[in-house]
Amino acid sequence: MSRALAALLLLAACGDPATPLDIKDQLAALPGVTVAEWFPPADFGAEDGYRYFDLTFTQPIDHANPGAGTFQQYAALMWVDETAPLVLYTSGYGAGWKRYLNEPSQILRANQLSLEYRFYERSRPSVDWSKLTVQQNADDEHAILKTVAPLYSGKTIQTGGSKGGENSMFHAWLYPDDLDGVVAYVPPVITDFPDARYATVLDDIGANQPECRDALRALQRELLARRAAMEMRAEMEAEFTIAGVAHATETAVVELEFSFWMTRGEPDCPKVPPTTATDDDLFAFFDQTGGPYLYGDNDLGLYGQQYIFQDHLELGYPVWQHAHLDDLLMFSYEDWAAYLPTDKPAYDPQKPRGLVEWLATSPPHIMIVGGGFDPWGPGYPQLTIDADTRDYIAPRASHWSASIYALEPAQKVEAIDALKQWAGVTTHREPGPPLATMAFPYTRSRNIVGK
What we know:
- With 451 residues, this protein is an alpha/beta fold.
- Helices cover 34% and strands 14% of the residues.
- The chain has two domains: 32-191 and 353-447, Alpha/Beta hydrolase fold, catalytic domain (Rossmann fold, 3-Layer(aba) Sandwich), CATH 3.40.50.1820; 200-328, no CATH class.
- The radius of gyration is 22 Å and the shape is globular.
- The two termini are 31 Å apart.
């Protein structure tokens, strides 16, 4: 506990016992923390009883060498009560769910801390990309939880989706005493580059919807046949000085089928346009299902280059199915050099492979919530199920729609009961339809659950 915080607590104890120390003052007294309160506008629909804060934490660039400099790591806090649990949300990218409760926080009526990953968005320590590692990020989270520990007496749950779900499990493995439970949504743990488990995933999902699969693949070919029209429209939305509009557009076309099952899924199969549609209609669907802007300068700077670097360094990447497009391609999809922020690093899968081995030992209080039609599904880790471990698949759910709410009724009850037990609470709120995905905080280069 910092001297400043201890002094404030002493003053509060010596003053009017009916006037507890304000949480903003407690936050401001934490070592290395800056705080600004965010006040929701009248029409915002703020959560009853919650207060909102923007925080920065002073962190070492290299936790193994604290004298090598520091950076400011951003987080958003939704605070309700010192006795409530704390849900630490990590997307693995920016700080999503900044002003809204994610699903575990909603169920538990918890305090919620949404943390930005180092090197992403505003939390950029330096240009030393070698410090963008799983271990350094786990060290960041451990230090932050240690800093905020004096503020609350409840349990600590970590959650996140996709890369954030994997990240939550990394934290539980590397710092097992930090957390009382993990809810990992749609968390692929890729153990190779490329990971051959994905060789047939689009065929496997498409077999359930063959007309949709065929329409998507025909659309991909048509987009490449009309690449000049697609590139022209892409350049109206984003700048492409890093990789070039031709490369960015082609990459997004190759990924379109995967992106469709990842972000939209079965309910949107009727919306796939025919190959006879206009250029504008084709591009509109393309743009809403991924689109070239994902490989434009803005998105690459916010999160894309960081993610691609991490894939090459530690996190791996799937085999991608694109044989039906190869005769129309100008670039090698497997060559990511144009998108990397630095020279290609040597790939070392030690951390993801170690995580898989640890998860196979049935560590307690781990819950995975996957999607039945999630193309990242082949990378979900295998858990040994026991009384303290939960592994669920939301039927026919995509990467973005998988949730506790989407589980079968009996599984939803079981999942909520387990979460309450781990969080040390006896009451809960029923989850509603998710406001947004747990898997990714961006759409159209905007944080969909932040302000």
